Automatic annotation (TrEMBL):
Keywords: ATP-binding, Kinase, Membrane, Nucleotide-binding, Phosphoprotein, Transferase, Transmembrane, Transmembrane helix, Two-component regulatory system. This is histidine kinase. It comes from Nocardioides albidus. PANTHER family: NITRATE/NITRITE SENSOR PROTEIN NARX-RELATED (PTHR24421), NITRATE_NITRITE SENSOR PROTEIN NARQ (PTHR24421:SF10). The lineage of its organism: Bacteria, Bacillati, Actinomycetota, Actinomycetes, Propionibacteriales. The chain crosses the membrane at residues 42-62, 74-95, 107-129, 141-159, 186-208, 223-244, 250-272, 284-304. Its EC number is 2.7.13.3. InterPro entries: HATPase_C_sf, Sensor_HK_TwoCompSys, Sig_transdc_His_kin_sub3_dim/P. It catalyses: ATP + protein L-histidine = ADP + protein N-phospho-L-histidine.
Amino acid sequence: MPTDRAPRLGVIAAGIALVAGLVGALLGDVIAGVEGPTAVQSFQLTNLMIGVPAGVCGLILAWHRPDVLLGRPLIVAGLAAVATASSVPLLVAGIDHGWPLPVLRTISTAYMTWTACQFLGLPLAVLIFPDGRVPGRSWRWVPGFIAVTFAVEFVRFSGDTPLDNVPAYASTPAPAWTSIGPVDELLLVAIAASLLEVVVYVLLFVLIRGRYRRGDETVRRQLLWLLWALAVAALLIVLDVLLVEPGATAVILVLGLIGLVPVAMTFAVLRHEVLDIRLVWSRSIAWLLLTSGVLAAYLVSVAVGDVVLSGVVPPSVPAAVVVAVLFHPARMWLQRTVEVRMYGERADPVRAASAFTAELATRVATPGDLLEPLRVTLRLPYAELRSPGQPTATSGQPMSITESFVLRHAGAEVGELLVGVRRGQGRLDPADRAVLALIAGPLALALHAGALTEVVQQAADDIQRARSAERHRLRNDLHDGLGPLLTGIAFHADAVSNLAATGSVEVPDLIDEIRRSASQAIVEVRTLIERLRPVSVEELGLVGAIERHTTGLAQRSDGSRLQVVIESDELPVLPAPVESALFRIAVEAVTNVARHSSAERVDVEIGVDGDHVVVAVSDDGGSSQAWSPGVGLRSMRERATEVGGSFVAGPGRVGGEVRACLPWGGKP
């Protein structure tokens, strides 16, 4: 791509410079006759151990992730260390052959570039790790502070004799151009440089701590790679300095372990998912503890044996026996501890299943609560539970690699469990699968129980809604039907009482009106009672029950009669909800005709149309105006909708028409 051409050319140029420096150092040693001890004592080998990994890793990062500036300070660190290594044979040859002092001073200045690796490149890389940016505005001054520290350190180490650690050249003066005197005499510069160096290390420690606390799971894993490399290098360097004579070859070579830092950085940025760094940390700590324990046990045993068995057997013999006896149990215990810390109880499926079921019995309230105990038991990074009719439950951070497990109860699929594969693994371990196979049973049972609970709760809600609807309907029926009749009876009774003393001729008519109203009220009460406790459809059949309930509607309160004609096809065995809905709709429709229409005839037709059963109620009342839905129409529509049917009502060609079409589950 054209926009990447210039950065890529810069990477190529840096790579050529790095190779040229490495080749120059190796060929220069051959030509100048630099022997192994000189290469070690001059720190040439140490600089190569640091510079080559730093440079190569910087080139890889700059090539594959040019958007992350982390590669640039690593390239600077690598080139600086390699430049120091390549200047060693030049210094040796110049001193041996008596080159002019200005040339030696120039080469000595190039030798001091190792400070740019240790005090500039690597600190800057740690500062912007892992995203290639300074963490915030409050840290923008730190790169400048690191640059000042580097400059002071460069002057500090620019002494008169750059190869002062090599006995053959320790007394040969070849000061760098930046030298202001022998290193041993620059006390104030050394103190200032040491203080600046400590401040830089403290700042970087605070920075890493803050990034870890604020970062997400990915950032924390990347930082763990850096911390692991820093911890390993620092631990071995400290142990080497404490246990080995200063200036020894081992001390010098161990300093090269700083080269682990750029390698860990590169791995963290490009391949942090390939291997779980937590496993690396746990294994490292386990072996460190095991080694320390074995060493301590050996030293204590030697000391005790020297006192107790002095002159009997060499003290190393009982010490070896003690170490041999304790080593295996200690290793097994540490391995078990690390296994549980990293992978939970997967090594013991029965214990894992028991722990999960214990959590299930004590803390789980919903199916989603099952996931956290599952993840804790197996130390899984992610778990997801899918169940029909229920929202998807998740726990943990989604992973790019997941595996699915079907959950079955009584042979039926009740859900699906998805678990995320741990970082650094391509698939679940067979031990994980064994535990999940044991857990699947209780998990499926819990899902099934949760589904049943939902069904029961839904049924309870439906019953409550139906009860409320029936109460609302009863209130309306009492208010609209029985209430006016009783009010009329009371008014007529008052009129009779007032007119009885005067001997009015209207008294008999009023008494007849009271009698008619009372008869109509009785009919209303009977209708309400039958609605509250209807004759069983199972006893009389659908048609018989409709006939029974509409018989009382044939005689209206005003003396007019209503002929109710019921026609029905041979009906199949209908589901109870459908049959009840048909009965209620037919009776309600006929009741509406008796109350609100002047019709003399109402026809009720029930038939089967494929996989639907149809009830149609029509009258000859001659209604032509649009109907306004009342309680009765809304009730009929709700009953049809509840069983998945349709409902229409309104004026027809002769009178009112009501039609409901309900599915009954048959085939056309």
